Amino acid sequence: MLEKYIKAARREVKADIVLKNASWLNVFQGRMEKGDIAIVGDRIVGTGEYDGVKEIDCSKLTVLPSYIDGHVHIESSQLSPEEFASLIVPRGTTTIIADPHEITNVCGMAGCEYIAKASQNIPLDVKLQLPSCVPATPFETSGAVLNGKDTQKNIKKDYIFGLGEFMNYPGVVNCDADVLKKLEAAHAMNKIIDGHAPATSGSELNAYLCGGISTDHECVNKEEIDEKISKGMYVHIRHGSSTQNLGNAKYINAKNMRRFILCTDDRHAADLKENGHLDDALRRLVANGLDPVWAVTLATLNCAECYGLKWRGAIAPFWFADLVVVDNMKKFNAQYVFKDGKLVAREGKPLFDTSERYLPKSVLNTVRLKPLTAADFVLDIKSDKAKAMTIEKGGVVTGCEIVNVVKEGGDVKVKGTDLLKLAVVERHKMTGNIGRALFKGYGFTGGAMGITIAHDSHNIILLGDDNAAMAKAANTLKEIGGGMVIVNSATGEVSSVTLDIAGLMSSRAAESLQQDSRALIEKAHAMGVKRDYEAFMSLAFLSLAVIPKLKITDKGLFDVEKFAFTPIEA
Amino acid sequence: MLEKYIKAARREVKADIVLKNASWLNVFQGRMEKGDIAIVGDRIVGTGEYDGVKEIDCSKLTVLPSYIDGHVHIESSQLSPEEFASLIVPRGTTTIIADPHEITNVCGMAGCEYIAKASQNIPLDVKLQLPSCVPATPFETSGAVLNGKDTQKNIKKDYIFGLGEFMNYPGVVNCDADVLKKLEAAHAMNKIIDGHAPATSGSELNAYLCGGISTDHECVNKEEIDEKISKGMYVHIRHGSSTQNLGNAKYINAKNMRRFILCTDDRHAADLKENGHLDDALRRLVANGLDPVWAVTLATLNCAECYGLKWRGAIAPFWFADLVVVDNMKKFNAQYVFKDGKLVAREGKPLFDTSERYLPKSVLNTVRLKPLTAADFVLDIKSDKAKAMTIEKGGVVTGCEIVNVVKEGGDVKVKGTDLLKLAVVERHKMTGNIGRALFKGYGFTGGAMGITIAHDSHNIILLGDDNAAMAKAANTLKEIGGGMVIVNSATGEVSSVTLDIAGLMSSRAAESLQQDSRALIEKAHAMGVKRDYEAFMSLAFLSLAVIPKLKITDKGLFDVEKFAFTPIEA
User: How many CB atoms lie within 10 A of CB B547?
Assistant: First the structure.
């Protein structure tokens, strides 16, 4: 096995591929070098002067180790792993630490297994973290529960790399027995545990870290970064679609540099397609003044070290030939991408076929509910004043406004007001649960709209000014197996986009999915949804009962600040 | 398991031990901090403000992660692992990457197993590398042979951490099948392989690295360091007794700092006792101008990262409480040493008992030979001119001088000349092999002296001007089970120091062993050995057939430059 590398390294035989006369990044020395890079099989065998069976002139190009995304939820792209890879690999990312938190909340371990198997035939190393918080909170009904015992069993699976972001911070510091079982199971297997501990500090952070947690991607300021790095955490600089903290890069210095890594966390298909993946992060970091050598080191060697990815993240003899050849370290336009020595993308286009999807039954038809009727959306409020949810522009933080309600036949009158009905319909266990609320200021009128993405349990979230349209919307989502829907009361028109994989992702190609999604989103705006919001995706966070202030789950209205359910009556 | 850490981290219960008001080194930020360090069981649970069941005032002291020696042969101390630990742990070293190359060349895997078992009850983490070169060369008879097949079997052993320094550089680059088998076996187990490749560069270094080798401790200049780091190697800064390259520290800069680590390689008991271990390296590095923060980081976090020692090498919540409390970062005098949270040394003295030795039969009585007589040392030279070995002052490099020989009764007359007879007597397999040579300029007269340490196969190496005394010396070494001996022809006196463990190390306490060793060494000088030489230890390298120029093994005289045996006749 080693012989072929050694002989080519010694120039006794030609290398398979030689990148000739390249400028290349030496991450160990933090500088650029000039010369040939020789590849044999899956490895780099040497730098210096080499002849290859195939030679690529890189005299005007720059060769970098290809990028490693330290933390990502593939589901946020709404794409299958195959399609996701077809977007990010051509951008230069060849390894991701993926936390299939969303699909596992819907499908349980079948969701994890699906991501693992779907990733087998694509030139992207998908290191799979076992989701640690399924469900994320006890305040909603999820499709699956992974308790401590399940974690003990599943963390041992070969396809499981580590334990996913441990969001249940109170559970750790309060020594919840089931939480400790999960953490201890990961330790017993010597697997890395990702963190998620916004604004935690002092002895609380110490306690959280004593759960054996290694990383954080939620830092918001210098003090937080400083303390977390001081206490041994690797800190992710994040370039998601909504949640970004590239600005944290200004706190990187020569002394702490090795403890920073890059991630995208949640990134939409449109962003991936139009702006890119980690290449976009690098572009912006460098434009904002970060040393390009440091920027790339964060995305390569540092991330490999953090996650113990041996022989990855650098250009050196015997290191895996995971390489991206870019035009320069300002634009980071990927000209060639190599994964394990194979050329897998050229000028931004994948050279691998992802047309065939792995698509097991276990992740399809995941919308389970009894047919709903208009009566299910009647809102019987016992007072004249009620709490209405509001939403900050472009954000996920919600507010609570006390509104006067007009009653009409045992229901709240919303038509002709700036109020809408909001409902979360349980879709996993046929519990019949429906959480109901009022929603102010979104702008939609004349029907209903809904989506089967509703963080983190992904029940159906619906809004509307017409009970029958809301029932029709929910029933349609069941029929199509999940996705997004709009029902127009006036015309009776029902428009939808199917997200067949767990109601979260589509098995279609990115381009046609996006086209249809965009059309549907435009339809929502045409029906009044203000352009301040992302039409459907803004809804998807109204159920996330860990972000202030007022949220709605299938179990009811939830006051995040009091951490308890609350009546709609004010 | 985690609960006790978390509760104390959160200050719900007192920590076991708190180092109060300490200055402590934050290796992640490259700076000093001030505060308490709380320890529970084997781990640090927090930094900040803590109360402890036991509290130690550190307001005038500095707390560092305790040191990790990246590469050491315990045998070079001539002490048992227990006694070795009693010298180095109080100096602040609590983890070593140990390569039992010497004892394995004598005893085979029984030697490895002995070191592993003898290390079980001492507060020193001994990470054991499987020696890769047993024998080191095919030009001598060793006590054991570990071929590729043996390596495949033994690398899987639980007590084996990695593969020891791969000195057979030609074997790697020439794709020797048995060599590749060894390297591949280590890869298959995902175990680290240490390197040893002096002066290797360019495509030859690339080829060597394609053996999957990670480290080097033999660098001699800036160019070599630069290239080796560029190609992904970790470079050890070495502080051995004879072989030192602390001067290489001047090539450390902010960009390459993370790729340097510290080691001692070979360090004598006297040095350990009088000057210290890595603490001595740190003292000197800092005295020579290296930033003390960097110096300690080399010996802690960097070394832990290189060898994948998780949760070791830093002061942070959940990291192992391997700590050394020093007076300051100039003197590095260790006041307290903690290993896995236990106080194991105080003011330079061990707090652990090493009086009981693990001493299996397999490493005792390892000198196997038939009784020798004066006739065995007759030197029948077929010409008037012969090659005589010479030795550089204080070094291990030898020369070759052509000398006129006077013959007397079929033997060479050495008495009254500046020549001595030198012999290597095979002592493992009863082959009866004796390699014979002439040795010039050492100064010894009036008998014979010898030792059972002769790198790397550790046969008996003897010199003398009296055949009968040489026979007596060899026979005495057999009787005492290995060690050092002087036979005085005039008085008939036989003086010796026993090295009962494999003929390499003593099971005695360091102090009494050293006393006797010093006395014997003085006796050698009294019989004429020039003070330029280390009396016995200078002999031990005359058989090392990989260091220029002329060497002697049990198979004969060896020309290292021609890499072939050579007749004694000139």
Answer: 15
> How far is B389 from A290, CA to CA, in rounded Å?
60
Residues 303-362 of chain B with CB under 8 A from chain A are 305, 308, 310, 314, 316-319
Q: If residue B485 lies in a helix (H) or strand (E), which one and from where to where?
A: strand B483-488
A-chain residues near B184 (CB < 8 A)? 1-2
- Interhelix angle A109-118/A81-88, rounded to 10 degrees, is 50
Per-residue pLDDT, A205: 98
Q: Running DSSP on this structure, what letter comes out for residue A374?
A: G
Q: What values do phi and psi take at B538, rounded to 5?
A: -70, -30
**pTM, full prediction:** 0.95
B223 reaches A (C-beta below 8 A): no
Measure in Å the smallest separation between the Cα of A166 and chain B Cα atoms. Answer: 15
Round to whole Å and give the CA distance between A40 and A20. Answer: 14
Model confidence over B171-181: pLDDT tens digits? 999 999 999 99
Residue of A nearest to B7 (CA): A207
Task: Identify the residue whose tokens are 């006797």.
Answer: B516
Asked if residue B115 has pLDDT above 90, the reply is: yes
Q: Is the pLDDT of residue A394 over 80?
A: no
A 183-202 → B contacts, CB under 8 A: 183-184, 187, 190, 202
Distance from CA of A539 to the nearest CA of B (A): 37
Read off the pLDDT of residues B318-351 as tens digits, 9 standing for 90 and up. Answer: 999 999 999 999 999 999 999 999 999 999 999 9
Q: Above 80 in pLDDT, residue B352? A: yes
Task: Measure the CA–CA gap between B525 and B530, rounded to whole angstroms.
Answer: 6
Chain A contact for B173 (CB, 8 A cutoff): yes
Neighbouring C-alpha atoms within 13 Å toward the C-beta of A104? 27
pLDDT digits (tens, 9 = 90+) for A411-434: 999 998 999 999 999 999 999 999
Q: What is the pLDDT of residue A144?
A: 97
